[in-house]
Amino acid sequence: MLVNLAFPVEKPSEDATPGEILLYHRVNRGISHQELADKLGYKRAYGIVDLERGFNPIHYKDAVKLGEILNISPDELLNEHTRFCKPGYGICIAKIREMYGMTQQEFSDLISVTRSRLSAWESECTGFHPNEESFNKIKNLAVGIGIDFNRLMDNPAEYRDEYNIFVESNWGLKIKQIRLAHGMLLEEYASVIGCDKQTLEH
After folding, report:
1. pLDDT tens for each residue of 145-172
2. Checking phi first, is residue 196 left (phi over 0); if not, alpha (psi -120 to 50) or beta?
């Protein structure tokens, strides 16, 4: 039978896992595994043990409930993967895919999942979100094309990439200013960026 520890747990270090942080707050509030399991709607106390030991990740939905019970921010119980999987992750994935100019089939092939699974992620069907391996592939693809991944996660609906910000207005003037800042003639700059003089002038 699982019982609550009778002694306080040392405060977690800065690199503590979400499970270690959960353990700290649960024990120091005098809540047993079973009590916390009951409040979360888990059938068995071992569900909490698995979260604390890192056998299972603490997903956003549970982090919110735990935060309310333990009076802490849900973010304390999330790692980068589970923070990504909070509401809005579907928009994040779709934006990354669109910035690659790919269909769902092409992008799903790239990250080695089925198109239907990718579609479920993008529409945020209940219970469907990327596992850690798929998340790492998606993140690496995003970072690989210059996406500010943290900014994208923080506000996926409003995120715009640097290219779209650059071309939304006065992009001809911006290009000219960059060329002049480097002290280059049209021919020189055209050669550096890989086009001809006429294209650059246009």
Report:
1. 888 898 898 888 777 656 666 666 787 8
2. beta
Residue 33 CB partners (closer than 8 Å, separation 6+): 2, 3, 4, 26, 45, 46, 48, 49
- DSSP-assigned states of every residue in the chain: -----SSPPPPPPTT--HHHHHHHHHHHTT--HHHHHHHHT-SSTHHHHHHHTTSS---HHHHHHHHHHHTS-GGGG--HHHHHTSTTHHHHHHHHHHHTT--HHHHHHHTTS-HHHHHHHHTT-TT----HHHHHHHHHHHHHTT--HHHHHH-TTT---HHHHHHTS-HHHHHHHHHHHTT--HHHHHHHHTS-HHHHH-
**Which residue type sits at 4?**
N
Note the pTM of the prediction, 2 decimals.
Answer: 0.69
